[in-house]
């Protein structure tokens, strides 16, 4: 049987255009070990691990006449050097220069004729550091058969580089005749598939919305607020092709102190810090805020499979992410009240018994947040941008160091994609005592994304010093 893309995976390909590339990314920064961390060593490391990710050596093949959804086929011309690229900043490279490079890389679509991922080994960072920038299409990472590349190459202890022999042999690509015969066989079994596929590839919005609604259950199983249009504002504008990327570095202990003083969860405090920053950012743009003004965030959260006693890798199947619409109270001037409002809004999720504690997520091997952020992006990409203003993903990571080979990872920043008519997406990851924010903004609509990043730090300080 052909390895056919699911309706949801195919939809990410159909709706993609130059202004909304549908890939999720990450920026990992490493300390270079004494014996070095070279491009060649990274190639060896990724090459060794690709055996566990067959999807990363497959490309998408269209069916003639769009009689069925595309299929995954082995890339007979797979070239690891094409996908793992080498780049450098003028020494000593600054973080600002790195993040400018990230913004440019993330604005470019992946080549649809090749496996849908890229990695960039960036040298020249000040302090003898190197960075790894990854891009993976949302159709690739499903959390079931395929995880994010950044999760697979990281280990809990330094690993000595090992020579390896690549024994992979691609399967022969199916012929046009075989693709058509397979499609006809499936159409006989499900005659409505043909009409739906033709309409979807023609970008029929109504057909696409219906198709995604049918298949989105494996990624976003619940919306916990009434689905109504999101408030209008500067975050919902026509998306351009350019991007701006900024980061925030904070300490996990600060969020825990706020939680201890005012209740709620660490995730509530993260959302409250972002809410305070969005309030100041809107005010700086002359927005007229009232006490009831809100910004609606789509907040994908990991959940536990009701039939699984313990959180484990199989529990990622089917109930990986619930997507919650949370109205952030940006009109509320009091920081503690903002936190309380958010805590109440998230209470249904916590009371459902399906939420997963941070320590539970860490039982998944490798750096699981990379995969969880990808699944969060899938949840956002499968929904209409009219019902939310901003995507915010927050995934806890391990509080011990991780390594790529011998190189210790010191920081990790998610890069969440923008969907159509969305100007901002925020990814948050905790790792080894830090909480790291990655802000991906539209270059025209949110050119001052670095200003917003600074306001998140100020908002957290406000929460730390807040009193009733």
From TrEMBL:
Pinpoint the O-acyltransferase WSD1 C-terminal domain residues: 318-464
Task: Kindly report, in one word, the top-level EC class recorded for this enzyme.
Answer: transferase
GO MF terms, alphabetically ordered? diacylglycerol O-acyltransferase activity
What GO terms describe the biological role, i.e. biological process, of this protein? biological process involved in interaction with host; glycerol metabolic process; response to hypoxia; response to nitric oxide; triglyceride biosynthetic process
Show which residues constitute the signal peptide. none
Sequence similarity? Belongs to the long-chain O-acyltransferase family.
Name of protein: Diacylglycerol O-acyltransferase
Q: Which organism is it from?
A: Amycolatopsis umgeniensis
